[in-house]
Amino acid sequence: MNSNYALHEMLEVHEMAAFKTVCMTKSKTMQALVTDRSSSKFCSKTYNYHSSSFRSSVECCLK
């Protein structure tokens, strides 16, 4: 991470990363547990969304 960021900005990014990680974990876990095909598909889409969003955020911070 760029050292030009203030401490509160780095903490905000850390909080966002932690939240996205929880979302991805929950989506992946629920996908394995649900028996309904549409619910499983929804969990998969949710996981992919949060995963992509997480990667974009990390890439943005590393610039």
What does this structure look like?
The chain starts with 6 loop residues before the first helix and ends with a helix. It has one domain. It has 63 residues and is an all-alpha fold.
Quick gist of this model?
The protein is mainly α and 63 residues long.
> How much beta, percentage-wise?
under 5%
Count of DSSP-assigned helices = 2
Q: Helix/strand-derived class? A: mainly alpha
Largest sheet: none
Radius of gyration: 15 Å
SSE pattern: HH
| Poorly predicted spans | none
State the end-to-end distance: 8 Å
Please state the overall shape, judged from the principal axes of the Cα atoms.
Answer: elongated
Q: How many β-strands, per DSSP?
A: 0
Number of domains: 1
The helical percent reads over 70%
Mean pLDDT: 87
List the helices and strands and how they pair.
Layout: H1 7-33, H2 37-62
Question: Notable features of this structure?
Answer:
63 residues; mainly alpha; single chain; 0% strand; elongated
